[in-house]
Amino acid sequence: MNTPATVSWTHDGLEKAALWSSANDVPPPKAIVEVDDSLGADDAYRMATNGTGMLFTGDYHNARQLLSAIARRIPAGGKAKRTAAAPTTAERFYKYRQARTHRARILSMLLVPVGPGPAVALRRAPDVTEAWTNAFGQVAEPVVVSLQELLGAIGAQQWRTTGLHVAALDAKIHPHYGTFAPVRGEYLDLVARAELPGLGRAFDIGTGTGVLAAILATRGVTEVIGTDSQERAVACAQATFASLGLGERARAVQQDMFPDGRADVVVCNPPWLPGTPQTLLDYAVYDPKSAMLRAFLAGLPDHLAKDGQGWLVISDLAERLGLRTRAELLHWIEGAGLAVLGREDTVPSHGRAADTSDPFHVERSGEVTSLWKLGVK
Prior knowledge:
GO terms for molecular function: methyltransferase activity. The protein is of the alpha/beta class and 377 residues long. It folds into two domains: 6-158, no CATH class; 163-376, Rossmann fold, CATH 3.40.50.150. The chain has helices at residues 41-49, 60-73, 89-107, 129-136, 147-162, 185-193, 211-218, 231-243, 291-299, 317-320, 326-335, 361-365, and strands at residues 6-11, 14-20, 31-35, 52-56, 110-115, 119-120, 143-146, 164-166, 171-173, 201-205, 223-228, 250-254, 263-268, 273-274, 286-287, 304-315, 338-346, 369-376. The strands form four sheets. Strands 1, 2, 3, 4, 5, 6 and 7 form a seven-stranded mixed beta sheet that branches. Helix 8 links the parallel strand 11 (223-228) and strand 12 (250-254). Helix 1 (41-49) crosses helix 2 and helix 4 crosses helix 5 (147-162). It is globular, with a radius of gyration of 23 Å. The mean pLDDT is 93.
């Protein structure tokens, strides 16, 4: 394991230190200064843009208000480069992601101290014991964390407690911190209604919350194995199976891609967009150079039972944004020795597809999500 980073700052002329905590592996600021309720938003924004971490020592609610004030001062995007031709959709998207990354970096500069308990060492701070432990683990000594990450952990705990109703299961699941919640029901419905080639065994590659594996188990598949490279996701999937009474049919294992053996159905819902993830949740959205997609296709023939099918669940948003072409996808399928046996399509029903203020509304509103049925040639 990597040695946790240590951060230091000056308090009343004396140097103090604490461990740095970031579930997203964000590096600590190179310089940290103590600040309190007297710090104005303009000064805070200037310090954040200069890369100075601000360790807040005042009131928790004032810290939240300061973070919101900093956010309001961040420009929507950088100045576009002047070129002879209008930027392509892909160029606009890359620029948009750069702006989002810049925004996240600035907001990460407002820090709060957390002590054993765990307890946020600020006046009027809420009880974060459950949220912190589920997101970051135990606290044995003082740590420093960005307020933005702490708020993310608190929000995730609220969602985990409340749960998310999944129509395809007619039940709630409870996503864990850092595990992508299946808020888009249309791709779940594709898996719930597609004709199964067999009921013996199924694999769910990159299982996440375990929702697709659970759908297959409720449809009568005798043995379902979900794999995920993230320990958080495996724990979440196992909890999903237990809560739904599927523990005898479904299980999750920490594994990169395929488990041993072959299956009648091997389903994969890879990240839909080529790109570099910046946060834990980004890993469910961005797939660097489509690596997981290509690995799934390449390894699929060796893990399909006779007459088995691979179910690739993926959106065409990457194609609409100019990040990947349909020809590339078909080339990878062909190169893996696979044939397209069929395809079932659906359109999104989530709010962003109807949001005309979204800079990519045209692309999102035309998006199609598909379940590609693949077999060995």
